[in-house]
Design a protein that fits this description.
This protein has about 425 residues and is α+β, with helices and mostly antiparallel strands. It has helices at about 10-20, 25-35, 75-80, 120-130, 155-165, 180-185, 215-230, 235-255, 260-275, 295-300, 350-365, 370, 400; strands spanning about 5-10, 40-45, 50-55, 55-60, 65-70, 90, 95-105, 105-115, 140, 145-150, 195-205, 280-285, 315, 325-330, 380-385, 395, 425-430. It has two domains: about 5-145 and about 195-230, Jelly Rolls; about 230-430, no CATH class. It contains 13 helices and 17 strands. The chain has a six-stranded antiparallel sheet with strand order 5-4-3-9-7-8, with no helix packed on it. The protein has a four-stranded antiparallel sheet with strand order 1-2-11-6.
Length: about 425
Amino acid sequence: MSNSRSYEEVCWEDVRDKVRTVNPELAAIIDRISPDKSHKLLKATYKFGDLIVNNGVLQIRHDDKIHPITSSVFSQKLKENLLFSRIPLALPLNKTSEVFVAENERIIPLIVFKPGMMFGTFETTDFVFGLRSNPVWNVSAGSRSIFSLPKLSDSACLNRLQALFSISKNNKVQSLADHWELFRAMANNENFTQKWESEVIFFTKKWFQQQKSDPKWNEFILYMCGQSWKQSRLFLSKDEFAIDWQNFIRTLTSRRLQPTPYMVDTLRHLFLISIGEAPAFKPVGDSNLSAPIEGLQKAIREVYELKKYAPILMHAVTHDKHDDSNLYYSLAYPTLLEGSPDSKTNSSTIMLDTRNLKLIIDTLFGNKEISESILSNRNFDYFHIEEDMYKEVRSSKFIQKEDPNFSLDSFKDLEFCSTSPFWRGCIRIQFTKGGTK
């Protein structure tokens, strides 16, 4: 690979072992095809925070900068190989990637791809079947929806980070939503202590120009279409909810409950999270798949000099049937795709909204038909940093005591940040045995 480029053309035999490690099923399918060396793949490397796809346009690193594939820095041959689809079929090899959309100042995570999970399936499937696609989403290298539980807004502490990592003073850190920009600037500076790179392979046009009568190639196309179908579940589930929703509405009406449209949208989003069709948040732990966690925590502790609280980072994930970790959704940090916090009534508060959600969900749990279907094997708990005078919403001080994933062995001398803005109106979803679809 050239020093000026972060990409190279490779053949199947060059990446076969890596693919087999993260996706043995796909590797076996391609082995049966045994593609020759004319079936090129592009292996590209990204830094943390790079946008692999920016508003539906593929991006590749060149000369240590990220460029759209349409840029003149790339050869015409490379463009022809990749521009058959707005987003060519891609496979992350070693890090996670997050699909998200930006709505005004809100970042809305849609899907989190682990190594071995394909993206670009919608757009490539459209190409195979002669359809047009117009994607508007983004894909980040590593987690886009990531933040520190403790605030990082102290001016003197930020000045130290900005000085060491050459961060512009214009990078304001006023809320949790600003943390990703800060983390990206830190991670991509030469003074950052941890190397982090995401490797992604892209399938070129020739992989999708085979004779349809060849059953080996059909198996490859069928696999891709199957992945596309699974990823469309988020949107299909919304339609399925429309059917169940009538039962919900009847139950609420019988109790004379009239939730606001925003509460209804939030409730629907919580149910999507609970069935694994929408992301929520959990502590990152010590894994570096989604970001250079060790380096970020080291900088927060030693350069920013966070003294009281443990530098616990949260990131967006989708519930996995093999992982029964608790997930958290915050009314103070809303990520629902449909519905806007701006639609709330002015008289409402987060505490009041949290109580109302609890009342609605408790009412639905009281309906045996509902509780034994969509709510089966799931528990909901409600937290806030302030004391609830009615004792319906619990104090966020209990969160760490009840969730071992917030315990960091490396920071035993520091406290859990129970006053984080994220805990204002936070709903915890617990999964018990058999709690997935």
